What does this fold into?
Amino acid sequence: MNALDEIIDSFSRLPGIGKKSAARIANSLLSADTVFMQRFSSQIATLQERIRPCSICGSWTEKDPCPICSDSLRDKSVICVVEQPQDVQTIESSHTFRGLYHVLGGVISPLDGVGPSQLRISELHQRVSSGEVSEVIIATNPTVDGDTTALYIQKALESSGVKITRLASGIPAGGDLEYVDRLTLDRSFRGRTAI
It folds into this structure.
């Protein structure tokens, strides 16, 4: 295996990148200028040293606590619970949520050997117990494991007195009923709202 094959193999191990995409990336890097390549390789080499989980919410940050947790203008009474740090970035890009976040670090998945103790659920319970939180929004993915995790969190926090809500799921804007799966359609009917 030569150096090009090795880098293609490395890129193809990243999520969402197949062999063809990995080959395009590798070939693009071969034609990139030296300054870019040095900066890019330095960024990759130091990524894990520079970025770490926020001690409060668990999202990726360079400065601890993260900019969201330390923003005095955020609504500290609402916590949105997500599975992974990248979910925080996705929600933030919508500019619709102004509360705080809590990253679980995954979902309960018995088949994968992941139980509640491997997730940051006890840390969430501590944050809710502080008395500042009035609502917890569960934003786990609408999958079997995401739903199981949401139900577990709901049961774990029900004695805390906080309002527990779940993000609505259903037909996406611009979606076509012809292409909607049965589970999504079922959730859309159950989660319908008055107009």
Remarks:
- Strands lie at 52-53, 60-61, 75-82, 99-103, 135-138, 163-166.
- The longest helix spans residues 34-50.
- The mean pLDDT is 93.
- Residues 15 and 119 are 21 Å apart (CA to CA).
